[in-house]
Structures are given as structure tokens and as C-alpha cells.
Amino acid sequence: VLPLAVIFFCVLFNYTILRDTKDVLVVTAPKSGAEIIPFLKTYVNLPGAVGFTVLFAALSNRFSPPQLFRGIVTAFLSFFVAFATVLYPARGFLHPHGLCDALAAVLPAAFAAPIAIIRNWTFSIFYMLAELWGSVVASLLFWGLANSIMTVAEAKKYYPIFGLFANIALIFSGQFVRFASQLRSSAAATVVDPWAASLRYLVGGVAASGAVLLAAHEYVQRRVVGNPELVDETQLKQAKAKNTMSVKESFATLAANPYIRNLATLVVAYGLSINIVEVTWKAKLKERFPDPGDYAAYMGQFSSLTGAVTFCMMLVGRFILAKFPWGFAAAIPPVTLLATGALFFSLIISPGMWAPLTALMGLTPLTLAVVAGTAQNIASKSTKYSLFDPCKEIAYIKMPDPETRTKGKAAVDVIGGPLGKSGGSLLQQALILSFGSLAASTPYLGGILLVATTTWIRAVGSLARKIDAVDNGAHAEEPAADVSGDDSVVARPADAATVVTTVSSSFEDAAPVANGARPDEALPSVEVTPVEGIIAPAESHVKPPAAAAGS
Hints:
Layout: H1 2-27, H2 36-60, H3 65-87, H4 91-94, H5 97-106, H6 112-119, H7 121-149, H8 152-187, H9 194-225, H10 233-237, H11 247-256, H12 258-288, H13 292-323, H14 326-349, H15 355-361, H16 365-397, H17 402-435, H18 438-471
Helix pairs in contact: 1-7, 1-8, 1-9, 1-13, 2-6, 2-7, 2-17, 3-7, 3-9, 5-6, 8-9, 8-13, 11-12, 11-17, 12-14, 12-16, 12-17, 12-18, 13-16, 14-16, 14-18, 17-18
């Protein structure tokens, strides 16, 4: 267990550094800004994830899982080292500024973000691979390894510990980013490009952590996997059937079952809301911290605060889940996001309304907006990991029958997850191209946030009534929801407190470990990824979280 915990710590330590660094690179790049992020997610990250899926499928037919683990991790680390030592110093030669300036002269100003992707193409590749680190190394490789050597009982016992390590890694990595920025400041007088020096420190930390990661993996392979007293050989060979559905089948399932539609609404609304607020917040961060080093230092502090608050919220979340009804707990994330989002957007749209407060606090409206956006992002992430994900799993457990539960979860994974992740990016792209900039689109983004969160709250209320009906021993009325044809099957009610709220606060887009559980079991809900792209994990005893891939 300890070597696995060390691997998980190193994976998430690196991901937090890479996530903060990639944002600094693309947001503060020449003639770029936060507007570039929605375009990167759609036109760089998604094709990259699909391409890696194809490549991994081919490699998995030729190499063993340990060889894939070593090779893929080494390839990632090699690129990041090469970027800091070769590509970034040569960016002036490699980036086609002349070509992009010519394109900018003939295209409308709204195309500045897509042009910036080409202008800073090495940064765009770094952004994609930093996002893929979370999807591939965490969701695919780590959870594939962990689930192949652990039983269900061991998963229930030890996966919460991994979640604690995840949040501790977030705190430490955030402080390391701040430390690297301080080293940059001390070297500013003697170094021509202080941010380049800071980047080398950050990537050096990633490389050192990666070396520890590979050493721990080697220990697991030699001392754990081959030890019959620790791992049952039949468990390593066991494969479970995957519950997959086509997009057409998923739409049919959603259309037939209001219960599942409400669950999908929750997932879509979260992805849409957090995407809208986060990109606008990063745009304000660039205004407040135009220097890359200062931006990185602030992101490091943000990561540390997110880890600390999430750690505390996991404890509070367990109490809420144990003492209050499902509907109360499930309503906290959307209400929190709506309240903090309204405050953030009001500071941007109507700064004069807050003039007395900013004068009293001695802050500028921009600084207060940055602080409000920071609080909003921390609150939304911590409530997601501590309440949203466990409540979602409880709702799955309480479905009327196992077959509906299986098909419903597959439908939400196929439709809800990708739609929530890409919907926000596509809406922002449309608004930016229509109004010319992210700043001009801000009032409309605020309106979209209002619609998304209120729809989310209404779906929670509808779902709460159905769950109460199940808890009271009665079936909610759903004429078209009978998938199995057996109305006598009722899921075993689950104690909300047993749904473990431990998660990795570094990742935003993964399906919980319970995906592969038997229908009558509730495994710990472990959140591990961010990220864009869908990577199918190797089959194992306990099905790992589905990767989604990067912030």
C-alpha cells in the first residue's frame, strides 16, 4: 500500500505543477490570453487524447503493462525536460510570429485566440501533454496498476488513504511552485529571463518526483506483484465485462428515464458552470499578474489552498451526508457555485456597485474580482469532491434495479460527461467569435451560469423526491423507466456516510471507482482526473475511473 501511495503522491504532485505551469504559459504568452483555453481544449486536447487512445491500443498489444508504465512515464518526463531546456529557450526561433502576424492582419480580431495556438505551438503541445499526464498516468496507468493487485475489500480500506495523499500532494506542490517563483525573484538580477529559470526549477521538481515514481513502481513490480502472499495470481488475470453503450443507446436511455435524465443534468451543469467561471477568472488573473512568475506564484498558492480546503470539506461532507437528507447535501454544490459566481460576475460587470467596499478594504475592483474568483473556484472544487461526487454515487446506488443502474451510469458517462466538458468551451468559442473578445462576452457568460445552476438545482429537487420514494419503500412513478421488466427489484438502500468522500482534488472529470463495482456494493468514490480526452483503462479487478482528459 505504501509504494502505491507514494506513486499516487508523485503523480499528483507532478500534475499540479504541470497544470499551473501550462496555464501560465498559454495565458501569458505573446498576443495570447485566457480566451485561448476553450480553443485549446477543443482543437488540441481532444485530438491529442483520441490519438493517444489509438496509440495506446496498439502499444498494449505489443508490450506488457509494466513496460507500458515505464515507457509512457519516461516519455512524458523526457518531453517536459526537453521543453524547459531546449524548446522554451528556442521559442523565438521556433514560433512563427511573422506568419501569425500576417494572419491577424487579414482575419477578424475574434480569431486572435486560434491564431495564438499556432503562434505559440510549443506551449500548446505542453498544455496538451500536461493535461494528458492526469488522464494517462493517473487514471490509466496508476489506477490500472492499483486495481489489478487490490481486492474490493482492500479498495474500500485503502483508497481513502490515496485520496488523502492526493490532497496532501496538492498542498506540497502548490508550495513548491511558490518556492520556485521566489528562486526566480532572487535570480532576476543576474538572469536575462527569470521565468525561464523558474521553469527549469519547476520541471526539475517534476523530473525528481518522476524518478521517485518510477522507483516505487519498480518496487511494486518486483516485491508485490510477484509475491503470491500479497497478490492472487488469478486476480491479475481477471477481466470484467465493460458496461459500454453507444451514443445512440445512451440517448435512448436518457430519453426513457427521468431519473437518469436528472443525473445527467447534474453532470452537464457542473461541467458547464465550472468551465465558464474558470476561464473568465484566469483572464482577470492575467490582468492582475501579467508577469509569468507572479502568475505562477499565485496559482501555486491557489493549489495549496484548494488542497487544504478540500481536505477539511471531506470531513464536513461526511457529517452532512450522515445527518441530512440527500437533497440537502446535493443542493450545496450548485447553490455555492451560483452564489460565488454571482458575486464574481457582478464585480466584473458592475464594479461601481462595489466601490464603497473596495475603498473600505483598500483594494481595486480588479483585485477583489480575482479574490472572489479564487474563492469561487476553491469552493466549487471542494464541494464537488466532498458532496457532488458522493451524492451522485448514492443516486446510482438507489436506482430501482441493477440493470437500470448499469445502463444509466453508462448513459451518463457517454453523454453527460463529454457534453458538460465541451459545452462550456463551445459556448465560449461562439461568444468570443461573435462579440470579439472574452471581456465583451462576460455578461452573457454570467447569464449562462445562472441558467445552468438553476437548472441544476431543479434537477436536484426532482431527483431528491424520487430518492425519498425509494427510501420510503415506494417506487417513483416512471412509466418508461422499466428497463429490466421486473418491478420487484429494489436496490439496497445505502447509508450516505458509507460513500467515502475522499477524492483527488487535482482532477475534475473522472468517473468514480464505483463504475466497476457489483450492483449491490458501494465502493469508495475516488475522483482522479481531469482532464479532456477519454482513455479506456485496462480491465482489472476493480474498474478504475474513466479518464476524461490539464486546471
